[in-house]
Design goal:
mainly beta, 4-stranded antiparallel beta sheet, 3-stranded antiparallel beta sheet, 11 strands
Length: about 130
């Protein structure tokens, strides 16, 4: 059975940060099963409102001009804001800026594109 991390907590609590003489780094995963993507959404476009049965996600906003829906909450994240999405939680991202916006997505658990349960979709996908 998959566990997000040894303490079975939100993966944000497992982010490791270290300073180096040249700056530093943040490590999001370490020896874990995960899938990593950078997703781009165009201005005025919106992903489906969805949830997953078999994976949690950690999003890191890379640009301004994005709007997150997480459960009942809606907001525009700041660049590098980290957003944890537990499996079973409704979520979506929209492009609300004048140019495309990107975010880093780290999926924890069994990853399969067929694990998307769409509740609303502008493009009529199921």
């Amino acid at each position: 059975m998959f566990r997000m991390n040894r303490s079975n907590q939100n993966p944000i609590s497992s982010i490791y940060q270290e300073s180096r003489p040249w700056g530093g780094f943040r490590r999001y995963t370490h020896n874990q099963i995960s899938t990593v993507k950078i997703i781009t959404v165009n201005p005025g476009e919106i992903l489906s409102l969805q949830y997953h049965h078999h994976r949690d996600e950690l999003w890191v906003a890379l640009d301004r001009g994005l709007k997150v829906t997480l459960g009942e909450r809606n907001w525009e994240p700041e660049p590098y804001e980290e957003i944890f999405i537990p499996r079973g939680t409704n979520h979506r991202m929209a492009g609300v800026g004048e140019k495309s916006g990107r975010w880093l997505e780290i999926s924890f658990g069994e990853f399969n594109e067929e694990d998307i349960v769409r509740l609303e979709d502008r493009y009529n996908r199921e």
